[in-house]
Amino acid sequence: MANAVFRVTGLTKIYRTGDVEVRALNGVDMELFEGEMAVLLGPSGSGKSTLLNIIGGLDDATSGEVRFRDQELSAYSERQLTKFRRDHVGFVFQFYNLIPSLTARENVALVTEVSKSPMEPETALSMVDLEDRMDHFPAQLSGGEQQRVAIARAIAKRPEVLLCDEPTGALDSKTGILVLEALAHINEELGTTTAIITHNAAIQQIAHRVISFIDGKISSVHVNQTRLDPAEVVW
């Protein structure tokens, strides 16, 4: 097995509202490895998005430890977390968060302008098969095209890790497959460690490993011996 990029130990996240306590994560142990594509599978409320936000440096845990390579991420200050996100992590969310007044090329360029060793926006957009849509505005693009612009924006800074939260959740099956093809291509071409959160069990067929969540805990971990190409996935 490749080296661990993330190692999570005893991770717990508790949300409190008055006297009400909700355990979003309840003692999770998990690893994500270099170059793998992992699918974090589970129903809404099972804790998978909370975990993604914590390892991505967007939220903090109530207890437990998160290590990124040899660094204890859970001990980072806000300033250190900002640098960590900027230098190491790309995010793809269910909703695309593109700036409507900027073209696809300009949306991607926003990231490349603040990155240490970015790829050209045109290169990133080509990797998601949008060479002929670079100068279109978001309103001129389909949902799947907008999501692929969001993926191009995430990979343009050459992140070590790509964290995707329900990237096909707002898309139909045909369009969703195009997005999965883009993610699989990036994983294979760049070797980017990729974690995809989903409640859609069909997507697990493209993963190296499937980590299933229920009630704030990991219920099972499955290694795919035979992965499917995204085009072969039956939704």
Describe the structure.
The protein has helices spanning 48-55, 78-88, 104-112, 121-127, 143-155, 173-190; strands at 4-17, 20-33, 37-41, 63-68, 71-72, 89-92, 161-165, 193-198, 209-214, 217-223. It is α/β, with parallel strands linked by helices. The protein has one domain: Rossmann fold (3-Layer(aba) Sandwich), CATH 3.40.50. The strands form 2 sheets. It has a 6-stranded mixed beta sheet with strand order 6-7-8-3-9-10, with helices on both faces. Helix 3 (104-112) crosses helix 4 (121-127), helix 4 crosses helix 5 and helix 5 (143-155) packs parallel to helix 6 (173-190). The chain is globular and about 50 Å long.
What layout of secondary structure does this protein have?
Blueprint: E1 4-17, E2 20-33, E3 37-41, H1 48-55, E4 63-68, E5 71-72, H2 78-88, E6 89-92, H3 104-112, H4 121-127, H5 143-155, E7 161-165, H6 173-190, E8 193-198, E9 209-214, E10 217-223
Parallel strand pairs: 3-8, 3-9, 6-7, 7-8
Antiparallel strand pairs: 1-2, 1-4, 4-5, 9-10
Helix pairs in contact: 3-4, 3-5, 4-5, 5-6
Quick structural summary:
The protein is of the alpha/beta class and 235 residues long. The protein contains six helices and ten strands; from the N terminus they run E-E-E-H-E-E-H-E-H-H-H-E-H-E-E-E.
Q: Main attributes?
A:
235 residues; alpha/beta; Rossmann fold; 6-stranded mixed beta sheet; 4-stranded antiparallel beta sheet; 6 helices
The secondary structure category is alpha/beta
* Rg over alpha carbons: 17 Å
- Share of residues in strands: 25-35%
* Mass-distribution shape: globular
* CATH fold-level name: Rossmann fold
SS summary, helix count: 6
Any idea what the CATH architecture is? 3-Layer(aba) Sandwich
> Residue ranges: pLDDT <50 for 5 or more in a row?
none
In whole angstroms, the N-to-C terminal distance is 30 Å
Q: CATH homologous superfamily?
A: P-loop containing nucleotide triphosphate hydrolases
Tell me the strand order in the biggest sheet. 6-7-8-3-9-10
Number of strands: 10
